[in-house]
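Narrative summary of target 7.
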Amino acid sequence: MLKIDQSLKFSDLDEQITNLWSLSGEKILSIENNYDHEKGAPVFTSSGKYTTRGWTEWTQGFEYGSAAIQFEATQDEQFLEIARRNTVEKMAPHVTHFGVHDHGFNNVSTYGNLLRMLRNDHYSGSDWEANFYELALKLSGASQARRWTKIDDNNGFIYSFNGPHSLFVDTIRSCRALAVSHLLGHKYMDEGDKEISLVGRLVKHALSTAKYSIYYGEGRDQYDDEAGRTTHEAIFNTNDGQFRCPNSQQGYSGFSTWTRGLAWAITGFAEELEFISILSDEDLDPYGGKDSLTETFLKAAKSTADFYINNSALDGIPYWDTGAPGLTNMPEHYLNSKSDPYNEHEPVDSSAAAIAAQGLIRLGRFLDTNSDEGSNYVCAGLSIAKSLFSNPYLSEDSTHQGLILHSIYHRPNGWDYVPEGSKIPNGESSMWGDYHARELALYISKLGKNENYRFFDSAI
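Modeled conformation, tokenized:
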């Protein structure tokens, strides 16, 4: 169980974050100068070097989004150049990629960050550049919204790359694409000139995720005995819209909790709480109203956040799945000790920690940091960040291209690199883990200066 340091303040991490940016810049340049992009987007490291893995093209936005964030944090213009040039040259296919549910990952991380910085005068650009980014974000949101499976006349979800039957818990955080597109004033038009509400699709997807992807300890099935557990995938019969069963692609099983999916839910719902708070009642009344939606999203966010806190190691780093079979061979106190990425039984997943930490801080701030509950979540996020930004998780090896070590991609498929002499994967990084660590560091730094960082700031 995470030991929360209630005394932590945002500024307490300043020295660690300064060190992180120094290391981060070296690694971004190493990838930019040495990685062969003809092989596809970099996904995760193998023996310290970024490699690709064809499944879906969901990580390229994290690569160039990392350069954008690096520039914002350091004002080193070589990283702005990397982000701008590569976004223009390489990201266009992602804007209209109808085959994936990852638009919020790829496009808000690139076009969105660049537009936000441009509008906030972090750098100088033309009206053409701003309009270019806006158009990309508008189209991306509509492309994401197009992947729609109808449950009944009032409900549905954005289906995963796995097919129309598949609701992924990941997608709650990628719904940011729909939010930005809506705020930019875009209209998604379908057959017969019918306008489809981007807010409506986002909200309905979030409601389906809250209902089918998250457990609340309310006896949904035989294994629903603890609130906050998530399932990676919910399976539906597309003929009649009925929910059929929980499932998992990257976790151990549909009845255990893959911790990166858990982290996506924490941060996704926390961000959507921030988003709906700025919308009008008129925007949300057709979908139950702001109060009802806030209650549902808050229940989902708090349940998953509490489950994460209770099922992580003492330093806030979780093992890759709470039901992973090798955990039965771990010492009885393994959740009451610091995480051990070098154990012989099951790997940890630092990328889940990097994602979850931001969500915990956002949730705490939404609840009000002057309240005990809100302060507790903020300090939980800072406690995790403090662990991530230090040994053995922060990579200080200049020959290793990864920033945050001990990330896991796909344990069931055996894709992760197992070093010689080890029984489990360890010592490697992922593009999403590194990006979210950078985003977390930027967010904490801004909060320490009484500033903010929200995914939709580019659109308001």
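The first strand starts at residue 44 and ends at 46.
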